[in-house]
Amino acid sequence: MGTYYVTKVRKQAVANKDGTSHEHIIGVVTNLGRFYTNKEVVDSIDTGHAWYTEVDKEPRAKIKKLSSCSNRSGCLHSPYLTTNPDHTTRNNLENLPRG
Ligand SMILES: [Zn+2]
Questions:
Q1: CA of 46 to the centre of ligand 1 (A)
Q2: What is the pLDDT of residues 1-29, one digit of tens each?
């Protein structure tokens, strides 16, 4: 099975029902420069491939699927991606540079 390393994240601003807004992840860019949508990453994870964030001088964080964005406004954007929290936040998917 393949292993993919994500170095950048693509986000989109969306309006909340209460008039505020938030940004959520719509896809990722790998270290090879290829863009994948959330759905493509989730489908890949479901078929047994492993996805990790890759940040200089930080441990890799495993990417896992979430059923939806589920931000404070209850956004249902789906599927969604996240990383397990560890001792550092720099390798969190949400904190990667934009790409
Ligand atoms: Zn959202």
A1: 22
A2: 899 999 999 999 999 988 999 999 999 99
Q: How far is the CA of 94 from the centre of ligand 1 (A)?
A: 12
Distance (Å, whole) CA 37 – CA 25: 9
pLDDT for 70 beyond 90: no
At residue 86, the pLDDT reads 82
Q: Is 61 exposed, middle or buried (0-12, 13-18, 19+ CB in 10 A)?
A: buried
Q: Is the pLDDT of residue 32 over 90?
A: yes
**What is the whole-number distance in angstroms between the Cα of residue 39 and the centre of ligand 1?**
15
Q: How far is the CA of 74 from the centre of ligand 1 (A)?
A: 8
